[in-house]
C-alpha cells in the first residue's frame, strides 16, 4: 500500500524523463509458458499504470524414477491486480515498451484439475522487475523475475512461503482505438 501511495505522488520527471510519451491503455491475451491469461493495463500517470489479470496456469512436478509413477500436475485459476511503474520508456512509445517494476496482489484458486497433486487456494504478493517489448502493432513480449510471497487461505495449510518467480509472456493486443494517448 505504501508503494502505491509513493509512486502516485512521485513527480513525472523524477528520473529526468519529462519529455516521455504517455502510456497507452492496453487489453491483451497472454500466452504464458504454462498458461493463458487476460491482462488489462490502464494508465494512472505518465509512467504508472494499473494492471489487472486473470487466467489459468498449469503446474507440474517430475521426480526421479519412473516418469509415469512420479508425475504430478495441477491446473489452477489465478486473478491479480497491481501497479506497474515504468523505469524507462522508449522514445517511440507505441505499446508501453520499457523496463518496469511491478507489485501484484492476487489469489490462486488451488487445484481445479489435478493428477496426484493438491494445491490449496492462497493469496500472494509478487514484486518483480520486467521488460515489455512490442513486435509490430499487435504482439508484445514480456520477461520478468522477482519473488512471490504467499499464504494459504485454508487454516489447515496456514503459513507464509517465499519463492522466486520468472515470467515469459507473448501477448496479442486489442488496442482501444477510440482512446486518446494523452487522455487518462
From TrEMBL:
Q: Which domain of life is it from?
A: Bacteria
Q: What is this protein called?
A: DUF3575 domain-containing protein
Q: What organism is this sequence from?
A: Dyadobacter chenwenxiniae
Upper lineage is:
Bacteria, Pseudomonadati, Bacteroidota, Cytophagia, Cytophagales
Amino acid at each position: 500500500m505504501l508503494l502505491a501511495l509513493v509512486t502516485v505522488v512521485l513527480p513525472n520527471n523524477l528520473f529526468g524523463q519529462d519529455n516521455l510519451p504517455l502510456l497507452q491503455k492496453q487489453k491483451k491475451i497472454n500466452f504464458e509458458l504454462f498458461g493463458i491469461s487476460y491482462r488489462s493495463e490502464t494508465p494512472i500517470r505518465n509512467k504508472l499504470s494499473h494492471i489487472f489479470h486473470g487466467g489459468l496456469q498449469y503446474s507440474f512436478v517430475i521426480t526421479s524414477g519412473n516418469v509415469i509413477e512420479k508425475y504430478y500436475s495441477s491446473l489452477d485459476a489465478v486473478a491479480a491486480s497491481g501497479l506497474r511503474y515504468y523505469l524507462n520508456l522508449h522514445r517511440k512509445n507505441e505499446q508501453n515498451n520499457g523496463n518496469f517494476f511491478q507489485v501484484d496482489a492476487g489469489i490462486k484458486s488451488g487445484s481445479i484439475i489435478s493428477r496426484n497433486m493438491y494445491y490449496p487456494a492462497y493469496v500472494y504478493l509478487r514484486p518483480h522487475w520486467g521488460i515489455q517489448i512490442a513486435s509490430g502493432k499487435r504482439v508484445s513480449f514480456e520477461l520478468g523475475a522477482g519473488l512471490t510471497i504467499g499464504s494459504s487461505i485454508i487454516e489447515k495449510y496456514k503459513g507464509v512461503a517465499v519463492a522466486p518467480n520468472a515470467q515469459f509472456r507473448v501477448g496479442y493486443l486489442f488496442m482501444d482505438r477510440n482512446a486518446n494517448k494523452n487522455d487518462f
